[in-house]
Here is the input.
Amino acid sequence: MKATLAQLAALVGGTVQGDPELELSGVAALEDARAGEITFVARKKYLPLLSRSAASAVIIEPGLSVDRPALVVSNAYLAFSKILAHFHPPAAPRTGVDPRAFVEEGVVLEGEVSIYPFAWVGKGARLGAGVILHAGVAVGEGVTIGRDTVIHCNVSIYPGVTIGQRVIIHSGAVLGSDGFGFVPAEGGRHQKIPQVGGVVIEDDVEIGANVCIDRATLGVTRVGRGTKIDNLVQIAHNVKVGEDSIIVALAGISGSVTIGKGVTIAGQAGLGDHITVGDGSTIAGQSGVAKDVEPGSVLTGTPAIPHVLWRRVQACVPQLPEMVRKLQNLDKRLRQLEQQKEKD
Here is the structure.
């Protein structure tokens, strides 16, 4: 596949500097680009790397000056992602149901679907047109999957799960497993609380590899439209995640947490149960959040505190040994003065 610089400008809404008919065959990183390919520079500090790049053209933002044809856009990284998708469209799936797949009676196929070998679809499930189930996917009884959703190898979807349109679920994810619900019983035993609710995944969600999303005790666990979840995230029972949020790898969301719209939860962050995180908030990596978060907050640390305060605290930490030494010296001098006063 090839495209001219002018065609790429039309694709991303940019303007051309240099030859608009320059033909390009691909997109690559600065250090890997070859002649005939386009690369991108999102920040001025990376311009020295461009001088050593063989790329024939570059995506830049206004205000940057370069030594070769350029595509000028307001957001270089966004334009790069669109051009990358243009040069690397997804491979066309095999259509139809492979004879080695297991599709039980009562399954509704609303259009042409792709079901690969050894996938299993339980009774009464409903698959929208364009759904792709890769090898080893298990779809429980009564599950609904919206059109153009792609589910990769060895995903397990329990009964009672509803998945919207254009969802992507990566290998090893588990949706609808029992929530971690137990109550102390006689003799120190733990009595299991039946988990009889469901899971709802709204449109345009992407779920990373080995993510676990538990079913609700009652009601539903819900992931809002457009939210993106990284690998190895745990979402507990009855959690509600708002639209267009980001949850990064190894984060853990405890039961009955409510997360607003446009929230970012960074890697290894942990949220305690029954709290609310307001719209537009950011929880920094490895933070531990135990109480409600106001909309627009930026929190860091354990326990999580406002990020600006956390930076001030961290700036003090290297000075603690010297502060302790000074305090000990002051204490010693004070004692000496008190002893001298008693003698006088």
User: Anything to note?
Assistant: The helical segments are 5-12, 47-50, 76-87, 307-316, 320-343. The CA atoms of residues 1 and 89 lie 10 Å apart. The chain has a mean pLDDT of 97.
